[in-house]
Amino acid sequence: xxxxxxxxxxQDKRRQADQAFDAIENMIATLELRPGTPVVESELITxxxxxxxxxxxxxMRLVAHGLIVQLPRRGLMVSDIQVAxxxxxxxxxxxxxxxxxxxxxxxxxxxxxxxxxxCAARMAEAAQRQDLEAYMRVDQVLDRVNxxxxxxxxxxxxxxPMIIQCRRFWYAYRHLGDVAIGARCHQxxxxxxxxxxxxxxxxxxxxxxxxxxxxxxQVIA
Length: 221
Known about the structure:
The protein is mainly alpha-helical and 221 residues long. Helices cover 75% and strands 4% of the residues.
């Protein structure tokens, strides 16, 4: 039996770190880890069962994204939801999402195009069942496929913290929203990217941000 190559070992490490990041991000986005909650590394290692190194790397990424803050003499803590900044966040997110959508429409592989369609269909099914946890898990997967498909790591890296903040904001005030609207927006986006239509993908991206702005307006009004 041959051992894994250094490249394979590095890929496994990155995969585990991504899995740890997704697991902890989902806990924060769904308020399983609420704003102001202390983050205890040993507890997270036990809960997500991915080991110390992937968990620690995920926590460092979440600190960089602003979902977790590091306080002097108090350690790590889940950051607060900044309601008043939501419109500024969406204004910054819009051009990045449009760029990513256009790039994905041009650059996605056939497998990625199909994966986006599959994710959108699963989001629609989850919305119909009012299964918010499933909806958000698939939303997370769709974003990851879209970011890989666009092949622009700078745009994907810049937008990811904004997406996580928006996801948490939506979940915190979900009683004011309609998950079916989000599912339809993601369906339009997936179909445009799958069809290779950059202009339609940009319009669908803008429609998603418009829907998020309308939701934020309901929350802040």
